[in-house]
Amino acid sequence: MALDRATLADRLRDARKNGGINQEQAAEYLGIPRTAMVQIEQGSRSVSSLELVRLAQLYRVDLVELLEDQPVEADSPLQLLFRIAPGLEQDPETKSCVTRCLELCEIGVELEQSIHVQSNPLAPSYQLLPPQDRKEAMRQGFDVAETERRRLGLGTARITDMADLISEQGIWATGAQLPDGIAGFCIKHPKVGISIIVNYSHPKGRKRFSYAHEYAHALMDGDSAVNVTDRDNATDLVETRANCFAAAFLAPEAGIWEVLSDIQKGQPSRVTFSVFSEVTKTATEAELRRSARSQAITYQDVAIVAHHFLVSYQSAAYRLRSIGAISAAELEPLLEKEPAGSKYLQLLGIDAVNKREDPSDRELNGMVLYLASTAYRGGEISSGRFAEIMETAGLSADNRREVLDLTAGLMVF
Description:
This protein is of the alpha+beta class and 413 residues long. It is 55% helix and 10% strand. It is globular.
């Protein structure tokens, strides 16, 4: 029998009280008003899957136990993922790689619970109505990107590492071998928390965009347990919204104008200077005229914007169009100059976004191994279990023995 809303409300209220957390703290953690938290615990407001995951982490309870009467929760993360994207199962290598990544995420969640680690504060859940048309989807994406940059205190600065930023929000983030048509996916499940996995075979600029895109799904699509980004759903409104978020989050409008100003582009062709004299009580004016051609944005300028924000040439060109820095008529010729723009950056030795990096999920390995080492030192897991986790993370037998010896030397009995 499915768990009814009133029973779930009672369990959530009891779990909060047992954890010594008040309603205001829980509401702030979810990014919702306290009144909404009251409604959740009264059973008069539904709870999204993302909110349930976050509350379970905050209260340090097992979400499966909270929802033990709800049959849908019996599905594993892999079952949910393969149901949405069955193509991931077809290639044995891909299936093995994805399975391993999610297994590491699951181990990480278990370790956090075993050593009672308070994970990083989770990113908020933006409560948005489903977009009704393309224009609304774009507006929502741009608005949330601006709000999220402000929340994180990013200003107009470029984001050096998207995977690191996502991890700091309490979300697992890594790369895996995926079919070329799949850019990445975001999954929310009690066993793996919130996990973002992108296609690590794509160039750096595209991977950064994919991380930002899947981060948008984590922020704005709390009711969806799985979001897979592929060619088949590229025109969906929620995908459009996530694309707009990613574009604006990686390359903020104000930041682009700053870059254009630094290279003296995108400025008016005529500028009037006025100076008021306190002595004569009169004003003096002078007009500066720039050559109209000097203000035209070239493919080199697009390339510089792309390099500054570590995005692709195409993404930079479309972003310039979206903020009104170039016209629709100027966009197409600039897009045709993409090879020249990439060559320009290569000649300057600064073409980072088109490079294909070493396919590695070392960031996820590092986080999980650190947790495992801490749990082993604290006596929460055995040396055998620690060795199993290291093997899952890809360490050789010799390295596993060496790490065990080094960690054992730090243990206090």
